[in-house]
Design goal:
Beta-galactosidase, Chain A, domain 5; globular; binds the ligand OC[C@H]1O[C@H](O[C@H]2O[C@H](CO)[C@@H](O)[C@H](O)[C@H]2O)[C@H](O)[C@@H](O)[C@@H]1O; 603 residues; 3-stranded antiparallel β-sheet; 2 domains; 15-stranded antiparallel β-sheet; Glycosyltransferase; alpha+beta
Length: 603
């Protein structure tokens, strides 16, 4: 069974696939990120659907890499009879989704096999399949898939199999195309033309970002490309990760569906993209946000689907055994109905940042910000589920209150500095009131640390964000005390847990790994506290946890030394980008200050 870190990502800005080091596509949802998977071997066995394309002798590849700053993947096997390369990519979507795999003979002659096992509806539906001269058609219910290749394939053991030899200089294309079964078949694409266009698209996109020269250029670029790949182009939404139910502990039940757009995750992603100068993505995301949250501010959800749908009912897929038997496999996410007060702060912080970065605030955008703020004024004293989405009792999370302070701070400053209309003085007074409340109840003077919730002793890594949002300076003794407390009480092998699951009553059984984003937040906090050497050492260690193609999932198991949780995860990658930019520039980054400033023609 492949490990989480054995997977590379390819995608077309509507969905994404995971390709293993053995050359197997084990995860692909069509036509969108949150559609049912037609390859779900990731969460079961190959019988749940996969597409293996590799030398007949099989095994892990000798090397693989993305082609420079693109999402075009090259996987190479050196065998006794010769060397072969498989180029995998998804062309940027025009109408139909395609997966293209080109087998390239590098030297000698290699016996190859393509084994395509389509299983629609997350591994449950075996399609009806017809083989013609140079194409295979598979149909079941709403789904139709066509495979085109000059290599002839045939049905074998409920799969479509093609055996062929690739000689040095050969290029053998396979193009898999999805469509709705009741529609006309999409026009065929040319694999080589698509390769050139896809390479150009990603190279151009990468080139548009701010100059990231320096020692961290490669990790910054790869993380930005990954964040872009998690973006749903038609609406501007950004999914939290490409997968569902990769476990936070092997064999555990903390398995969630991340193929949705969390306001928290996407606002942080937006901050990373803005820091790198990607204004178009920031504008598209803002439009998605304004459409999704439009209406009564009291009905604001913490997450939406990629098209803004609100109802995301959580269900279990009992026919899938789960990744290494970690069950259940879930779709939908019950957290969508939770109260998480930090989301107001993150949303208003990011819209403020967009304004500071030069994106013009339209009247509609400002009206929604005012409505959100007015709603928060009546809500901030309520207990909530917090940013970690605990399923235990609601409580007064310190981080949630700090983020309510952020909301009041950014809104009062927007009125004062940008002459936008609103009760600026009232919001200033509220800001001061929240601050006093946090300092009185969220800070433990005996141990000189902020605490997870009011009047408790429990630690929480989200408190590392306090200097970043500007609540207190990075060198404040209370911030330094919190850093020290987290280093002493909330780390495993120097990496940071969100909280101690044994102490925090999150309403869930079992434990989890260290949370990679929180470990990057420790980098930021150390850097802001003047501990630059420690920050750099930790950051460079975190870089070593990336897989061979630069991807990070949500968590890390410090004992088994392997990645855990959904992958690739936006939370981990935007945290990496933010830390890298700070270390690169040598100055601490606050969430209300863009690293790059551009003028905008208005929206
Ligand atoms: O651990 C419990 C919760 O885990 C998920 O939430 C986490 O992922 C979210 C998406 O990246 C992130 O926004 C949140 O801060 C994380 O705690 C899961 O989605 C929840 O349903 C679950 O309760």
């Amino acid at each position: 069974m492949a490990r989480v870190e054995d997977y590379a990502l390819i995608g077309d800005l509507h969905t994404a696939a995971l390709v293993s080091t053995e050359g197997s596509i084990d995860w692909l949802c069509l036509p969108h990120f949150d559609s049912p998977a037609c390859f779900a071997a990731l969460l079961d066995t190959r019988d749940a659907g996969h597409w293996l394309l590799s030398p007949v002798e099989g095994g892990t590849c000798t090397r693989r890499a993305y082609v420079e700053d693109t999402l075009v993947l090259e996987t190479e096997w050196v065998t006794a009879s010769g060397t072969v390369r498989v180029i995998d990519f998804m062309p940027i979507r025009h109408k139909a989704p395609d997966v293209v795999r080109i087998v390239v003979g590098v030297s000698g002659a290699v016996q190859m096999r393509s084994e395509l096992r389509l299983r629609f509806d997350y591994g449950r539906v075996v399609p009806w399949v017809r083989h013609d001269a140079d194409e295979m058609r598979a149909i079941a219910g709403p789904d139709a898939v066509r495979l085109c290749s000059p290599v002839t394939s045939a049905g074998k053991d409920w799969a479509t199999v093609a055996d062929f030899t690739v000689n040095a200089g050969d290029r053998v294309p396979f193009v898999l195309t999805w469509s709705l079964s009741h529609e006309r078949q999409p026009i065929r694409i040319d694999a080589e033309e698509a390769l050139a266009a896809t390479t150009t698209f990603w190279t151009d996109w990468s080139g548009k970002g701010a100059d990231a020269e320096g020692p961290y250029r490669e990790p910054i670029k790869r993380s930005l490309l990954t964040l872009k790949a998690l973006t749903y182009q038609p609406t501007g939404a950004i999914v939290a990760a490409a997968t569902t139910s990769l476990p936070e502990r092997i064999g555990g039940s903390r398995n969630w569906d991340y193929r949705y757009c969390w306001l928290r995750d996407s606002t942080y992603t937006l901050q990373a993209l803005l820091a790198a100068g990607y204004l178009a993505e920031a504008k598209a995301w803002r439009e998605w946000l304004l459409r999704s949250i439009a209406g009564d501010p009291s009905t604001l959800q913490i997450m939406y689907s990629i098209d803004g749908t609100r109802r995301l009912p959580e269900a279990e897929l009992p026919w899938l055994a789960g990744y290494e038997n970690s069950s259940p496999v879930r779709t939908g996410n019950q957290a969508s109905g939770q109260l998480q007060l930090d989301v107001w702060g993150e949303t208003l912080d990011s819209l403020n940042l967009a304004r500071e970065a030069g994106i013009h605030t339209s009247a509609d955008a400002w009206a929604i910000q005012v409505a959100l703020m007015e709603h928060l004024e009546g809500e901030w004293q309520e207990p909530d589920n917090g940013l970690w989405e605990v399923r235990g009792d609601r409580r007064h999370f310190t981080h949630s209150k700090v983020m309510a302070w952020v909301a009041a701070d950014r809104m009062s400053r927007a009125v004062a500095d940008h002459h936008l209309e609103g009760p600026g003085k009232r919001w200033e007074a509220l800001r001061d009131e929240i601050r006093a409340d946090v300092l009185a109840h969220g800070y433990d003077s005996e141990h000189n640390t902020f605490t997870q919730s009011y009047d408790s002793k429990v630690l929480d890594a989200s408190l590392l964000m306090i200097p970043r949002v500007g609540f207190l300076p990075g060198t404040d003794p209370r911030v330094k005390g919190t850093i020290a407390a987290i280093q002493n009480g909330l780390t495993q092998d120097g990496l940071v847990l969100r909280y101690q699951t044994s102490e925090a009553d999150d309403g869930l059984p079992g434990h989890e790994g260290v949370f990679l984003a929180c470990s990057f937040w420790l980098v930021d906090a150390l850097h802001g506290a003047g501990e630059r050497k420690q920050a750099t050492t930790l950051f460079e260690r975190l870089l070593t946890l990336r897989n061979d193609v630069g991807l990070l999932s949500e968590e890390w198991d410090p004992h088994a030394k392997r990645q855990l949780g959904n992958t690739p995860q936006a939370f981990s990658h935007f945290a990496l980008v933010t830390s890298a930019f700070q270390l690169h520039s040598g100055r601490a980054h606050r969430s209300d200050q863009p690293l790059t400033k551009t003028t905008d023609g208005g929206m």
